[in-house]
């Protein structure tokens, strides 16, 4: 077997995974109104993620997920570049929503509420966007 064959196989697998994720995001993308609402919550949401990741009362796995999410959001590249209308930011929103739902399942909604730095209206919007109150 040639040296380049495993490299080509890994590259093809990553490309297929990326295309699959892109298709999933196209299907699951939030509507423009929800995306706009999510972008308005972004500063409070970033503070929430940082506070939750620093909370020693939360399980280590939850804090690790939050730390990885913050690292992903800080990276200069995305799964879908931000210059692509709607979808460019939708991938970040979808990933944040998935991680927050996971945090609520393990740590409880009260932990998220305790660390929310914004207004009650902002928390209500966050709950609607992520389905946290369900």
Automatic annotation (TrEMBL):
Domain of life, source organism: Bacteria
Subcellular compartments: Endomembrane system
Keywords: Membrane, Transmembrane, Transmembrane helix
Pfam families referenced in this protein's UniProt entry, alphabetically: DUF1232 (PF06803)
Domain DUF1232 per the UniProt entry, residue ranges: 63-97
Recorded topology in the membrane: Multi-pass membrane protein
Ranges annotated as spanning the membrane: 6-28
GO cellular component: endomembrane system
Name of protein: Uncharacterized membrane protein YkvA (DUF1232 family)
Organism: Catenuloplanes indicus
Organism lineage string: Bacteria, Bacillati, Actinomycetota, Actinomycetes, Micromonosporales
């Amino acid at each position: 077997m040639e040296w380049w064959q495993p490299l080509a196989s890994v590259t093809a697998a990553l490309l297929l995974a990326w295309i699959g994720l892109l298709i999933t995001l196209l299907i699951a993308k939030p509507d423009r109104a929800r995306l706009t609402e999510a972008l308005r919550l972004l500063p409070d949401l970033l503070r929430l993620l940082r506070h939750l990741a620093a909370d020693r009362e939360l399980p280590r796995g939850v804090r690790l997920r939050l730390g990885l999410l913050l690292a992903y959001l800080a990276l200069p590249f995305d799964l879908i570049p931000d210059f692509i209308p709607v979808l460019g930011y939708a991938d970040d929103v979808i990933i944040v929503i998935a991680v927050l739902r996971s945090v609520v399942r393990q740590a409880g909604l009260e932990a998220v509420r305790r660390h929310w730095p914004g207004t009650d209206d902002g928390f209500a919007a966050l709950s609607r966007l992520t389905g946290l109150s369900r």
